[in-house]
Amino acid sequence: MTEKEKMLNGEYYDPYDATLVHLRENAQYLMDQYNHPGGGGKTRLLDMLFGYHADGASIRAPFFCDYGINIKVGRNFFANYNCTLLDVAKITIGNHVSLGPNVSLITATHPLDPMKRREGLELGLPITIGDDVWLGADVTVNPGVSIGDNTVIGAGSVVTKDMPPNVVAAGNPCRVIRALAASDE
């Protein structure tokens, strides 16, 4: 099994593998162009970074990711300034999702065992975000978390566990505050 396959399977992998280094360097090159002030062709650069046409995606620079190719966004995705999507595992984002400034989706994690950390091993757990989700400013979503459809996560929250659909949640750690109501605007 290749290091890339291990990475995408949620197993320990060597991040210094030549293929992974090359993929990260390619993503860095594309991000440098994307984040350059006044740089044009943002849609084309996102398409190249993600490896497909992200229909209606709008990401305000600066934008940061590890690989890009492990990110799948739905239609009409919006991310405000300073979005970080560390995609050592799959990040799947539904349709009509909005991310406030400084949002971080972090799939990368490290071993708890210090000896394994010394070996330089890493692993990643996927993040899934449903349709019509809104993450407020400065939200961090931890590895392995899923957020259900229509959910709103309040600014400054750290999402450490799955969030159900149709709720408002906030805090550190993030917790459900209440269900969305038909009267919510």
Automatic annotation (TrEMBL):
Keyword Cell inner membrane: no
Keyword Repeat in record: yes
SUPFAM superfamilies in alphabetical order: Trimeric LpxA-like enzymes
SMART domains for this protein: Mac
Database matches in InterPro entries: Hexapep, LacA-like, Mac_dom, Trimer_LpxA-like_sf
Gene3D superfamilies the UniProt entry points to: Hexapeptide repeat proteins
Molecular function GO labels: acyltransferase activity
Domain of life of the source: Bacteria
Documented EC number(s): 2.3.1.-
Maltose/galactoside acetyltransferase domain sequence ranges: 4-55
Keywords: Acyltransferase, Repeat, Transferase
Family: Belongs to the transferase hexapeptide repeat family.
Protein's recorded name: Acetyltransferase
